[in-house]
Design goal:
Strand order of the largest sheet of chain A: 1-2-3-9
CATH architecture of chain A: Orthogonal Bundle
Radius of gyration of chain A: 20 Å
Order of helices and strands of chain B: HEHEEHEEHEEHEHEHEE
Structural class of chain B: alpha/beta
Number of strands of chain B: 11
CATH class of chain A: Mainly Alpha
Largest sheet of chain B: 5 strands, parallel
Shape of chain A: globular
Strand content of chain B: 15-25%
Distance between the termini of chain A: 28 Å
Structural class of chain A: alpha+beta
Number of helices of chain B: 7
Mean pLDDT of chain A: 95
Number of strands of chain A: 9
CATH topology of chain A: Cytochrome-c3 Hydrogenase, chain B
Helix content of chain A: 40-55%
Strand content of chain A: 5-15%
Oligomer: heterodimer
Order of helices and strands of chain A: EEEHHHHHEEHHHHHHEEEHEHH
Number of domains of chain A: 1
Mean pLDDT of chain B: 91
Strand order of the largest sheet of chain B: 6-5-7-8-9
Shape of chain B: globular
Largest sheet of chain A: 4 strands, antiparallel
Largest interface: A-B, 64 and 65 residues
């Protein structure tokens, strides 16, 4: 038995993995998480609902928009208010920009595990370009400090540069994917690696690109639209194989869709209000949800007698997917483990909270 | 694999020459620590202190005390401030040797901790072991970005190493959750001397947003001897490079009394 972690060999999050193995063959695998449990749900308690959005942004650093948006919607439902149209459209823009840099990161990270060096470098470079776009648009590489219950804290004025930069990034990305698809040594490590059967994915609550790569056709943006998604054309890609290659292809499709959604939002953006008053009355409660880069995220918010937050409950996508992940590791081999884990694209912070 | 080799050669260099003078730091538009101008404060106003989620700003007696080691760069104070005494800025390069340098002070009397000579051998060859003591993953995301083609940390002679046994610097992120306390201490104990410790991010410097909760501590103070502090939430890769270069005495520390050029 090999207990691997919680401090691991690279610049990665802390988590411990128990491998029960004989030589190359992994007989059984058990992740031991929650080394990173920070008590974030408790952190919300006693806070003013409108200010606590900055706490939600820091539950999962690379899911700042997903978390903050689900939180804002929960508070808005508790307050029975709706963000204005321009704010809703810009929220879609922010959410898709977050999906972009996250998925680009995972494509690069997948190349790292298959030791495709230039592929890794290019993926990480595209991620960096996306983050620099974020900084230029919002002042934050992680799109923080913009969302608030009721709308946005300040208006964003995306200039012509944004559409042009995103299009240039998309062209580079398309060429990048073409090259990946022609790299047989890379694909060979992904095809049939870590297959997650549809039945298991459903029973274990897998979500996001992981579930869609295993044939589960669910996406909160289409099925339970929030922000401005109801008015936008949504393409949801589902595949059947459930292996690492399928998960990678789902992410590629979602990146293409994200570029299209961003351009669409920029086209239809009209001047208007970006914030309404949002006061959640005492004893109110609300549920908010988003389809983040890693999958479905839910925030349940309960407001106390004093109008401050009494309880916030978070269901993060990584919490669901970490549960499903071991089912793809039992009875596989050591060499595929890192590739499989990278293909799932999990965060530990989002799970551990 | 000719496909990727030819692509790489044809792509040319994506690495910035920063911190060389003509290089781009890649942080256009990025907001940093709010700039504090006590002259512009309104008498008796404590709007910013009331709204700060980490109590980085406290109203005490005559004025405000501002501790940038606690700042999570949420910009709430700049929005609450009616006069612009707390103004948004691009001041994200905030690496310091001493914790006191992050606290705003009008007159900085004590000298900055002097650069020693014991780091001379490590100037262009530093091996860093990173430990995640419960971060939100934002800091890790930026640390992972250091080896992307834009920043390319290796060109500066700084490398991440898998084992604390090979490491010169322990770089810690996160508020130190109770569960990570022993593994963190074990990693530090495994490092041969000379060894140093850097606290990266508001959580490691002071506990950040989660600090002091039932599940975590308030950063590295009191846990490990800290040699360098870099606040930010998260600090961007250019800020991390800036901090590492100051730590290696390859660049001067510019933050004193809680402000650049203080």
């Amino acid at each position: 038995m090999l207990p691997f972690g919680p401090i691991r060999a690279d610049v990665v999050e802390s988590a411990e993995f128990m491998f029960f193995y004989v030589g190359e063959h992994i007989i059984h695998y058990q992740p031991r998480l929650f080394f990173k449990h920070r008590g974030m749900e408790t952190r919300f308690e006693g806070c003013s609902p409108n200010q606590a959005v900055v706490v939600a942004e820091r539950v999962s650093g690379v899911g700042s928009v997903a978390h903050a948006l689900a939180y804002c919607e929960a508070v808005e439902r508790a307050a029975d208010c709706e963000a204005p149209l321009r704010a809703r459209a810009l929220r879609v823009l922010l959410a898709e920009l977050e999906r972009l840099y996250n998925h680009l990161h995972y494509l690069g990270h997948l190349c790292h595990t298959t030791t495709l060096k230039v592929g890794e470098a290019q993926g990480k470079l595209l991620e960096e370009r996306a983050k620099q776009v974020n900084a230029r648009l919002t002042g934050s590489r992680f799109l923080r400090s913009i969302l608030v219950p009721g709308g946005l804290r300040r208006d964003l004025t995306p200039g012509k540069w944004l559409g042009e930069t995103l299009e240039a990034l998309r062209v580079e990305f398309v060429a990048y994917v073409d090259r990946l698809e022609a790299s047989e040594s890379h694909l060979d490590r992904l095809i049939t690696t870590g297959p997650l059967p549809q039945r298991v994915a459903f029973d274990q609550g897998a979500t996001g690109p992981v579930e869609r790569a295993s044939g589960l056709d669910r996406d909160l943006r289409r099925d339970h639209p929030y922000a401005h998604y109801a008015e936008l054309p949504m393409t949801v890609t589902t595949l059947a194989e459930g292996d690492a290659y399928a998960r990678s292809r789902v992410r590629v499709a979602e990146i293409e869709a994200a570029f299209a959604l961003c351009q669409r939002v920029l086209l239809l953006l009209e001047p208007g209000e970006i914030r309404v008053d949002c006061v959640a009355p005492p004893f109110s409660e609300g549920l908010g949800w988003t389809e983040g880069p890693r999958g479905s995220l839910f925030y349940a918010v309960h407001v106390g007698a004093d109008g401050k937050l009494a309880r916030v409950k978070i269901k993060s996508p990584s919490f669901s997917n970490w549960r499903a992940f071991p089912f793809t590791v039992h009875d596989t081999n050591m060499m595929d483990y890192a590739i499989n884990e990278a293909s799932f694209g999990l965060t530990t912070a989002g799970c551990d909270r | 694999m000719a496909l990727w080799t030819l692509f790489g050669l044809a792509s040319g260099k994506a690495t910035t020459s920063w911190p060389a003078a003509d290089g781009a730091d890649g942080q256009d538009g990025l907001l940093g620590m709010p700039r504090y101008d006590p002259q512009a404060c309104r008498e008796g106003c404590r709007e910013c202190a009331d709204v700060c989620p980490t109590h980085a700003i406290e109203a005490s007696g005559g004025g405000l005390s501002v501790d940038y080691g606690r700042c999570v760069v949420c910009q709430l104070c700049t929005e609450a401030c009616p006069t612009g005494a707390m103004a948004p800025s691009n001041d994200w390069a905030f690496g310091v040797r001493s914790r006191e340098d992050l606290v705003w002070a009008k007159d900085v009397r004590q000298p900055t901790v002097a650069a020693g000579t014991e780091k001379r051998a490590f100037r262009r060859s530093l091996h860093v072991r990173h430990v995640d003591a419960g971060s939100c993953n934002g800091c890790e995301s930026e640390l992972q970005g250091l080896n992307n083609p834009f920043y390319n940390l290796h060109r500066l002679g700084i490398f991440f190493t898998p084992s604390p046994r090979f490491a010169d610097l322990l770089l810690v992120t996160g508020p130190v959750t109770h569960a990570m306390l022993e593994p963190l201490r074990a990693a530090h104990d495994a490092m041969p001397e000379p060894r140093w410790v850097m606290a990266v991010g508001a959580c490691a410097v002071s506990g950040g947003i989660p600090g002091g909760n039932y599940a975590c501590g308030t950063g590295l103070e009191g846990v490990l001897p800290v040699d360098f502090y870099l606040p930010g939430c998260p600090p961007n890769p250019a800020a991390i490079i800036d901090a590492l270069l100051i730590f290696l005495d390859r660049a001067p520390q510019r933050v004193r009394g809680g402000r650049i050029g203080g």
